[in-house]
Amino acid sequence: MKTWEQIANIVKAQGVEYVFGIGDTDLHLFADQLDGLTAINLRYEGSAPLMAMAYSRLTGKPGVCSGSSGPGVASLVPGVLEAYSGCVPLVIFAPSVDLQTEGMGEFQECDQRKMMEPITKWSERIPYVERIPWFVERAFSIAMNGQPGPVFLEMPINIGGKLTSGIIVDAEPYEEYRTIRKIRVSGDPELISQAVELISLAKHPVVIAGNGAISSGAQDEFREFIELQGLPFLTTPGGRGIVEETHPLALGVCGIYRTEHGKQYYKDADLVISIGSRNEGFQSHSFADFPDGAKFLQIDISPFEIGRHWKPDVAVVGDAKLVLQQINTVIREKYPEKENYLESIRIKNLIKSKKNYENQVDKECLTEEIPIPAKRIVHEVSQVFGKNTILASENGSQDTWSYCYPYYTVQEGSICIPVAEQTCMGMGVVGAIIAKLVRPDKKSV
């Protein structure tokens, strides 16, 4: 087996079905020879990490992409930066120059690892043929675990060989390689109890659901959580789709994309519950958007994010899915007779206010203005596509409306593929393509 062929086998062992990049890279040539692993060949390498991001969002698996050395790797940088800012697990592969001529001005020579170092969790070189499995398996582990993110691996030509003339290694087929598992961490039980106590004392709580809640697969747990306690919620752009925005407790997107309806409820909150959100600039309205006198409960997989902006009254470090399971269990045990949230006067008023706002937007978008304003187009698209739709968001002027419920409403069975905090251009078209590739059962826009 040849070196890049071995890497392709290890990638397949992780359950990954697609790799993205230019078609003549070493990884792609061998990927296409394996049943169940398909190379998606692009005309522009810059789309590869964005496609890998979309794949990861839709499958929960790490995305894999590759680039040619030098300018090929440089073309990956914007998309990798986007994945890093959005905590998306990617594994990126590239060849590099021959170590025997490194530093002498070799063709397409550049310090690729230094280029990738600030925007990845791990940027490394495979130094020996014998260590290929260790590096590749570790790359997947680092990308998936803790706070997810991209990882970069390069392999010099004298280690990996040139295209199909790669160095022969004593390697096993993919069935013999281990599948790297995501390690989930529960919250401290004492802090879980404190969190439940904080929630029970709040009169006007509000929840912020971020990308971390979705990447942990916490959709069912989140729905149970908000319905057990009658908790109105906003999402970050990355958290959209955690629960449909037609849900009675949904208030739309937070921060810079907030609506008047959501803004008012958030302003009056006495407890903010952040789940899997980094609370960065756009999500927090430049860090100024925090209700006066409110308590703060923060749940995040990364200790680094705790108290990064707002000091929490209670903070729980752990996987969002497991932490919510813990909280829900304590709530059910402690408050078994809690009333249906729909019977609450507070929630009845919220639903009435929400309906009034939706009617207001409907009338606003019936304008016959020429040229047709972007908000009307977005609103019409939302109505036409409806349920079971994958929305791939492109950055630009239209996202002012497509991020904003109810101009675009994420309905039942729908999924969002957002760009992350850097708001790089390019996700819209490639995200929609990957949506149809991975989830052909759903509509894509």
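Second entry:
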Amino acid sequence: MLKERSDIELVVVGDYMNKSKGEKAAYQREVRELAERLKPHCHMLGGVAPEKIYSYYSLADLVVIPSQFQEPFCMVAIEAMGTGKPVLVSTRGGMTEFVKENETGYHLQEPMTPLTIAQDIEKVLDAPDLSNIANNGRKYVLENYLWWHVTNKFEKVIEKWFD
């Protein structure tokens, strides 16, 4: 990808040094090795405090979330969409409930490999409707996931329990 897009920068947020076992440890090791080969275009930030994460979204042209497990819900995708950034997410877990392909975001193809992820990133960055999709994602989050929306929905569920 760097051959075609020399201006690309990869910023990885998350605790990549966390001591994991088994497959996850092997995956983390592979990510660290790839990141080392991509320097100076790859920046491994490690864990970032929640109150500082928003400053990184503003730097992004695209937020990619290649989850390796069945995440029931992904706050990172909601946060990125809420800031108006396009998202490209794994289809594993619950993200497909709110990241609708070509409506509010984009899906990574399975099986996810470094090659397919790179292909998906290029496809999304070249999409003519990228800004419209990002705006749709932001609108969806503002209409469904602001705290007062969530609180109202939760209160209605509780009220039904006690009716």
